[in-house]
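Example protein as discussed:

>
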Amino acid sequence: MSKFNTKRVMPRFSVFAILMTMTATAVMGRMAYIMTAKRDYWMKVAEQVKKDSVSVKPKRGNILSANGQLMASSLPEFKMFIDFKAMHQSQMDTLWEEKLDTICMELHKIFPSKTAEEFKAHLEEGRQQLKPHWPVWKRRVDFNTLCQVRKLPVFNCKFNSERVLGEYISRSSYASGFHIEEYNSRQRPYGSLAGRTVGTMYGAIDKARFGLELSYDSILRGTNGIIHRRKVLDRFLDIMDTPPVDGADIVTTIDVGMQDLAERAVIDELKEIDGNVGVAIVMEVATGDVKAIVNMEKCKVGEEITYRELKNHAVSDLLEPGSVFKTASLMVTLDDGMCDTTKRVETGGGVWPMYGRNMKDHNWHRGGYGTLTFSQTLHFSSNIGVSRIVDEYYHNKPEKFVEGIYRTGLADDLRIPLKGSSAARIRMPKKDKTGRYWSNWSNTALPWMSIGYETQIPPISTLTFYNAIANNGRMMRPRFVSKVVKDGEVVMEFPPEVMREHIAKPATIKTMQTMLEHVVTKGTGKKAGSTAFRVAGKTGTAQIWTASGKTTSYLLSFAGFFPADAPRYSCIVCIQKSGTPASGGMSAHVFHNIAEGIMARDLKLDVNDARDAASILVPDVKNGNLLATNEVLNYLGVKYQSAWAPTNANSAPAWGTCHRSGADKVELTKSQGCDLKHIPDVMGMGARDAVYLMEKRGVKARIIGRGKVVKQSLQPGTAVKKEQQCILTLSI
């Protein structure tokens, strides 16, 4: 018979089943009620405790110099706010009123530009209106300042109980409603160094303004991530949906040392001559890498004159280049086979009439140059000489000359990755519909174009041309960024790019290299020269014309390369200056300082190079304690000969003499010495050993001079007497 009592158990089971059924029915009914009658209410509640598809900004990539130094990097900055509604709900009003004066005094200490009274009025205004997002300080602050503010009374009070759910939920767990917004702030460790090239950001909207920051913004910026936020137990949890992808780093070709050197050289010259604008570009010949780019412009701050980078003049200024263009004019003439370097040209007394206008040389008031050779027209920068040569061969076919200029690459679009960059503008002659007359040309256009007028060329294009001459005719595209790096790995490379394999025939290039070197050694570019290495280049002076046809300003230039026998770097310096004196030599002086500074940085000295037949290869060793001498010679690696067996320098002294044996050896000879009752021989010893031996015998030593002992007043070997004094005369 079963022990299970159905009559007793089943009623209990039935009651339990009924209760469970009723509970389930109630739950289901409540669910139906919430889903229908209360649906709108709870949907509003849900909207307050969650937020979907919140964008998360990635970390912006760094901009690095050629040797890996930071030129631009992102650091966090913060804006601070108070949620006065949350403060009121958490019943912090009494504490706020009690601590308000203290808070304002401390805020004044942190931000001295605003008084405690101003802080109090500002904060009270927000509290009276129960603002949920009231700024404590309107500007961004760094992390250290944020920590200081967070330590203030009330701001450091955390919640002890759950906040009341309202229309606005504070983003902080502080009862005061203190909360922050975080931003990425762009910082440049080297300050304004290469500022227009590196670029900067609009801080408030985190948007690139100009420079490499703008050109490579898509690489530096990265990709935004997405999160959704949920409120759990009075805390908001950020749940990642799509993680952000941080931006990659770009490695520029800029060398920080060269950039600093070039900036200081330009600024020093601008201050010296009261210049308005100073430009300098340094390029590596073989690769086209831009190692330094300077754009200094005169600014007046109050009563003080200073120089800053306000515009990238190096890539955007379209000005007539002046005499630096003469190199291209003569090169085209040679390359077309119109003449050779034996040609001679008459320049007269420095003034020559050309189609109703007078062409003048810079020394016309001193009588001009007379007859010049082809090369001398470049050496002395003769306007008449160059223009007469070009006009002689191209007057009836000016388009052939301009085609030759195009062949040099001067008019090429370099596709510089900097906003505002411009390609050169060199006019091509065109004829009208009849084919008989020029529609955009005049008889004077060609002569004046040949000496650097009638064209507009930015400094970067001129330098690229001179860099091609230094590179044996190979024209390289200027390179500002060499690679893109992500997490230590190279993800993209920008190798050196050849734009033109040859801008002229090899023989023409060789001739121009020699002529440009002679400009520095014999002609107008002497200020650019150096006694340590060879320099080649060309000066230029051009008037800057205004819209009204008047001019009081000049563009002073020098473009060249160094060392001339094995070019490593090319450089151009352009200075805009008002009034006279004004000459290309001013820019040549800046070029000289930059070139010598760069070459000095790369100078590596070897001690072997300093040795010659007169060099002393072993030190001058004094007589005295041979054990100490032995120790020093071993340390210096100097060979020596000795007939005795030395121990170490801590043993009892062994006295003797030393002298050179040959060119690279020292001979040590131990002497018998003398007892303590007789005067020792200290000749040839240093002061320390000589004084030691004298005073050990009770003789007071007096030192005169420095070096080694050449005379002692007491004769060696004589008996020691009480209270004796020995005068030791030393000499080097």
Residues 605 and 611 are 12 Å apart (CA to CA). Confidence is low (pLDDT under 50) at residues 159-173. DSSP finds 21 helices and 33 strands in the chain.
